[in-house]
User: What shape does this take?
Amino acid sequence: MNPPVAIGAAEGTGASQALALREFHRFDAFGARFLYMVPSAGIFRMDEAGCAVLDALSGAPKDTDALVEELAGQFDVDRILGTIQELTEIRAIGDPSAPKEEVPNDLPPADFPLNTMVLNVTNKCNLACTYCYEYGDDKIVDTQYGKQPKFMSDDTAEESVEFLLAESRGQPVAHLTFFGGETLLNFPILQKTVAYARRRAAEEGTRIEFSLTTNATLLKPDVIQWLADNDIGVTISIDGPKPVQDGLRVFHNGKGTYDVVLPKIKELIATHRSRPIGARVTLTQKNLNVLEIYRHLTQEIGFREVGLAPVTTQDHRDYAITPDAKDHMLSQFRELAQEWLACAIRDEHHGFTNVTDTIEEIHKGVSKAYGCGAGLGLMGVATDGDVSLCHRFAGSPEHTIGTVKDGVDREKQGKFLVDHHISTKTDCHTCWARPICSGGCYHEAHVQYGDSSKANLHYCTWVRSWTHTCLEIYGALAEKNPKFLERFDA
Assistant: This one.
């Protein structure tokens, strides 16, 4: 999507007709008014005439003649009629008797290609983080006594690569992310898989990019050098300064991890220069000083990028974030968003990826039918080769849709795509933020409601508030430094 289109400068004529406001969300930036259109996700900048027409219709429907008469003292007739025509074309206004636009049940094609495969190379972990969705109170798979092997085998890893090559269907680039448990507990399989995947991708005339997530405890010098030499993207799971990290992310004996991981992370950042090293923070009721966490990770440790996400858990857990705490968290997110904007206006980097990711979706006009790409463009593979909706469901029979050996069960996948489509989430149909959210994370819904197809209603206010903030950031950039937005066109 290009920067917002201006509305209100056209000239035109037309017969009188009844008009009313339709579905959009208004936001302002640097004195300019914008419309975020729902469900198309288009953004339009209003001029005086466009604002005047919308304001005139804000109380009740009016016909064209009444609008012209009301606004004739401000604008000439042709401009009023041209503005009405443009607003009608973008569906900001329309026939008051017309039914509300239904959310289309536009299922993806059966041959939709796989873009990212998350390979759970182990379901063991050397930490005992209380809030962990995989090992904590909210786990959905028995990783300790379940049937899945603790470590993925060479054969399963190779079959997974073949699965990715087949399901990505000749795309120029596919993505393979290594995951756990603690990913580096099975470091030998990473080395073998990368070598095998590179060779097979070259034979198929394609390319595979690699990344992994790790808790950093096993980042030995030879591991760090291998990551750098092989251009592996790295995300570190870390929750903040020493008191925060040691209160949440501990070894099985209860000892904190901060002093162990800090020198390893700094060595990784100093050695691995080809790709930015990112941090992934889980926010809980016990660690909500977002600004302190962000500044520590970027300014004191040196992370290039930091993303923060609220913990996934049931409300009665003592680390679950309360409603008041969510408001506090949001206010800090907004402060960081303003910092991000100030940097963007100066063409400078800011590492708060929560803003970057949302701005990219806004700029590209993303209007989601699904909360994410799980089960479609993204799939997770368990240690035994079962293919799940995503890595968070790896090993869960309820959320398994095939195997790397036999391929995707299209009947199971099709049922998932029908059940999880935005058209089935009636609570979302009146929400203006649904193009960006589409009901949210399936795993979050499963933990909260026992059903991955449910909308995450407990985060609706948060999502709308954060999306509004990012729209304001987008509008401000469109006004002050529109060229910055071009970097999201790729």
Q: What stands out?
A: The first helix runs from residue 48 to 56. The chain has two domains: 5-94, 116-411. The longest strand covers residues 207-214.
